[in-house]
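ok so i was messing around last nite and threw this chain in just to see what happens. nothing serious, just curious
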Amino acid sequence: MEDFCWGRNPVIKLLEDEPALCLKVMASKTMQRTTLDHIAGLCRAAGIPLQRVEPKALNSMIEGVNHQGVVAVIAAKPMMNIADALDLLPKPPSRALAVLLDHVQDPHNLGAMIRSAEAASASFLALPLRRSSLPTGTVVKTSAGASMRLPLASVGNTASTVREFQEAGLWTVALDSGAKRSIYGAALPARTLLVVGSEGKGVGRTTASACDETLSIPIAGEVGSLNASVALAVAMFEWFRLNCTGS
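result:
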């Protein structure tokens, strides 16, 4: 399966960090010379074909987005299985953070989650392939290239996967806006799995029940709940504050 990555910075990061995933780069004939030379040099170093095309050709390939004059054709990123992903976790007693998504369907949310997870030092992000957003070009763009660097693992049943994390020694926490206990009044241990659900339904009941704890993020106003990617970011950086900063 092939997909696209677009925009100057995302394509440059792709060529710098994961050139093996790039099949071809197409650059507009009107692109600024300095940027073109930089991209051309990266393509030459990695043996990736670079094709100069008319701007309208790029417009027809990916309609409705600002491609900034460059589009890369990419191969789908390989997904790890959960057993191999768990092997990436630092060994006890070292701190470890992992993320499990329960059917997050918005690719923009997924990209934002991956970007925040990398910034919060998560070891990897796991998601079920069925009924979930997959790492597409939109995800690459939204994640600012982090989706090419952060390991991603595919899982089947999320509740069963929670139990695998527990067997690996992680405290498992589901984020739920209706939970009575706040993340600020609970311990987030050095070895934690954070589980976040879909934009509309949240974490499924069976998956939430499998977790050691269900926590909420207190908010004001009348919005009711946070966007899934925002909620995950808040929880991850509270874990980071408690375990990585000495605060």
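not much to say yet. The chain has a mean pLDDT of 87.
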